[in-house]
Amino acid sequence: MDLLKLIHKELRAEILNKEIIITMLSFGLSIIVIISFTSNLSKQIIEAYAPGLFWLMILFVTVLGVHRSYAYEKEFNAIDLILSAPIDRGLIFIAKALSGFIFITLMQALIVFPYFTFLSIDIDVNFFLLILSTLLINLTLMFVSNLISGISMRARISEILFPVLLFPLISPLIIAATNITNSIINQVPYIEWQVWIYLLISILIVFGLSGYALFDFILEE
Amino acid sequence: MFYENKKNLYLLIVAIFLFALNSLNIFYGTPMVPDQHWAQKIFYLHVPSAWVGFLSYFIAMISGFLFLSTKKDKWDITGTACAEIGTLFMSLVLITGPIWATPIWGKPWIWEPRLTTTLILFLTYVGYFMMRSFGGNIERVKKTSAVIAIIAFLNVPIIFFSVQFWSPELQSHPQVEMNQQPTGILIPFLISLFVFSFIFFVMLSYRKYVISINKNLTNNV
Fold first, then answer.
1. How far is Cα A47 from Cα A122, in angstroms, rounded to an integer?
2. Chains A, B: CB pairs < 8 Å
3. Greater confidence, B199 or B8?
4. Do residues A117 and A134 lie in contact, with contact meaning Cβ atoms separated by under 8 Å?
5. pLDDT value at position A45?
6. In angstroms, what separates the C-alpha of A16 from chain B's closest C-alpha?
7. Rounded distance, CA A135 to CA A133, Å?
């Protein structure tokens, strides 16, 4: 029940000001334009790197969105009010991660068509598999990035510390995400890339449990 | 002051003596491997440095757990000292690895899983030290640093396997398994491993002393 209330709070705040989604979407679009210019629209470059570039864009957008979500709590000292509520602090982490998952998925749904259109990529893939794997990647991405954002939230230079800490820790996830999307686009049989799904699940479990258990220490004064 | 204690002074002298003896043994007492010549000698420094680096980070993780559960400052001091020494030895690994790889592999860096894991761990600890330096409130920084030390080490197997699956053609580290090495190589290697471990414990006790003195000075200002 507490978890649902916390997620509701996050969604309601976003519905009221739409700050995170708009920031992520406009930043994502800008990155697509930059990618188009830097690749010279070379078909070979784009086809070979499209999945990696996509996840790179999502990573940058995640940094912006997740940092904003915590900066918002800091600006209005809202985190102290949440902490004073009689709820399990691990649930705050889960709620942040799940609401972030909703935002990033929504943002991806809006940006995926401009991405393929601007970069002139024709794909003929199993969309069900692509969506399912993307949802799992998004969920894992949000658990990792919310834990790191929680760690850096109250630091003096949180906006710098967050990506500096996040990028090395998230590199296995980016490798897995790129390989999964690449395999689906190239119609590689599932048996050959299932290892990446197992790896993603391992990351989800390690960071999910660590976040749930350690968030109490991260937030306490 | 630290070395006014005779025990510490004797340990330092023994460490310097062992280091000099070990260096001489590596240069003159170990056999030349036919296809590697002098480049192979770096193996006696590279592997023990990696061992000490990972040992330091492992102790930093354990200290992190103990600090969060007991809130005793001595565990924060131990964790910080281990993080510093671990990063120093990981730097040595990242320097000696490419020095060895240049003549053997023909290029300094090929994303070999063990070296890549070391690099990512090293970068995570760069973030750790940024948190220590620019984190703000000292009590909060202690907790967040402990959390970073924990998740950084928990992430090690994930990074290793992700890099191994990412580039399977690069996973064959050209070193033969240690138990298959001839005695002429194995014994000096084990001696080097012991000497590096000894130096680590001498450095650890000194760094713990320096950090605790710094803390006392900061608290008194």
1. 9
2. 93
3. B199
4. no
5. 76
6. 32
7. 5
Residues of A in contact with B141 (CB under 8 A): 155
Which residues, 6+ apart, have CB-to-CB distance to A123 below 8 Å?
A116, A185
Alpha carbons A220 and B62: distance in angstroms, whole number: 21
Q: What is the DSSP code string of A103-142?
A: HHHHHHHHHHHHHHHHTT------HHHHHHHHHHHHHHHH
Enter the tokens of residue B53. Answer: 């680096």
- pTM, to two decimals: 0.90
Which sign does the torsion angle of CA A163, A169, A174, A175 carry? positive
Binned at pLDDT 50, 70 and 90, residue B35 comes out as confident
Cβ distance B143 to A217 less than 8 Å, yes or no, reads yes
What are the pLDDT digits (tens) for A109-136? 999 888 888 888 877 778 889 999 999 9
How many domains would you assign to chain A? 1
C-alpha distance from residue A79 to each of A72, A163, A166, A208, A211 (Å): 9, 21, 21, 20, 17
User: Which domain does A147 fall in, by range?
Assistant: 2-219
Name the amino acid, one letter, at B153: F
What residues does B37 pair with on adjacent strands? B33
